[in-house]
Amino acid sequence: MSDSPLLKVTSLSRIFGTQHAVNDVSFSINKGEVLGFLGPNGAGKSTTMKMLSGNLAPSYGEITINGYDLLTQPKQAKAHIGYLPETPPLYKELTVKEFLSFCAQINQIPPPNRKEAISIAIERCGLNNVAYRLIGHLSKGFQQRVGIAQAIIHSPAVVILDEPTSGLDPIQIKEIRHLIRDIATEHSVILSTHILPEVQTLCDRVQIINQGKLIFSDSLSGLSQQMQASSLLVSLNSPPTRVQLYTLEGVTSVEALSPTQFRLHYQPDNNPTELLLKQAVEKHWQLVELTPTQHSLEDVFMNIIQQENSAQEQA
């Protein structure tokens, strides 16, 4: 990976009236990275994507694309951006090849290089068999591929994809995800999505935006650490009281799921499993189930959002 980021965002803000749709957001992305951009509806994802692609001016802040300032050098900076909005900008009365030829022209690819650029985009996006078909006659999955092809035809440094698999069937989703990973070998990719498994499948880093603010930024491995087991599902035929379970070293809380089943939450660095087994044998609790419970990405996502909302309410 390159030492210098291909995209750098500094203190980015966008105000509509009195509302901060995006509030002081900063981050960067290097070559070969896929950055997942997450957030609930209305969090500021699409507004941020529009600013990064040059379709919406920020109220404050700086955006640098491959060394060019998007505000002071818009032509040079935009030449290094590929953008796929949530609804692909397609001319459905054209064939795939005609449309990509048009895209090559508006991206100012020199005439001698256009044929090769079109061929590469068609090949990479798996469009060979539909190159001469009208876009309006293609399935949604193939239309999405055409949308991605127009975003990469000029070989930009940064490719911005806004909900690229929205509305696709499982087979199409798998194919588009494979395509995105392939694109990331030569470009930086920013992926805005609300499909959490997509993040685990595709992304190297994850950022979460909520109420216009960036509230989480970490590598996928860092996010995975938050998903590590920190609770136990326990069934006992002769259970003790909740208070007795709570007094086990490391246990932070006890949920009674039924008279004989409990969920024990514990500090990640202080697993009470061995102590629980010992106590169950000594005190005849008749242990019948002991299962570590791993947090899903949905659990982690909701926990981060809820913690941030609680902090803002208390402020």
Describe this structure in words.
This protein is an alpha/beta fold. The chain folds into 2 domains: 7-225, Rossmann fold; 229-293, Alpha-Beta Plaits, CATH 3.30.70.100. 36% of the residues lie in helices and 27% in strands. It is built from 11 helices and 14 strands. The strands form 3 sheets. The chain has a 6-stranded mixed sheet with strand order 6-7-8-3-9-10, sandwiched between helices. The protein has a 4-stranded antiparallel sheet with strand order 2-1-4-5. The chain has a 4-stranded antiparallel sheet with strand order 12-13-11-14. Strand 1 and strand 2 form a beta hairpin. Helix 3 (96-106) packs across helix 4 (111-124) and helix 5 runs parallel beside helix 6 (170-183). The model has no long low-confidence stretch (mean pLDDT 90).
Salient structural properties:
315 residues; alpha/beta; Rossmann fold; Alpha-Beta Plaits; 2 domains; 6-stranded mixed sheet; 4-stranded antiparallel sheet; 11 helices; 14 strands; 27% strand
CATH class of the largest domain: Alpha Beta
Uncertain regions: pLDDT < 50 for 5+ in a row? none
Shape: elongated
Secondary structure: helix percent: 25-40%
Task: Spell out the CATH superfamily of the largest domain.
Answer: P-loop containing nucleotide triphosphate hydrolases
Secondary-structure element pattern, one letter each: EEEHEEHEHHHEHEHEEHEHEEHEH
Q: The biggest beta sheet, please?
A: 6 strands, mixed
Q: What spatial order of strands do you see in the largest sheet?
A: 6-7-8-3-9-10
- The computed structural class is alpha/beta
The second-level CATH architecture of the largest domain is 3-Layer(aba) Sandwich
**Terminal CA distance:** 40 Å
User: Could you tell me the number of beta strands?
Assistant: 14
Number of domains: 2
CATH topology name of the largest domain, in short, is Rossmann fold
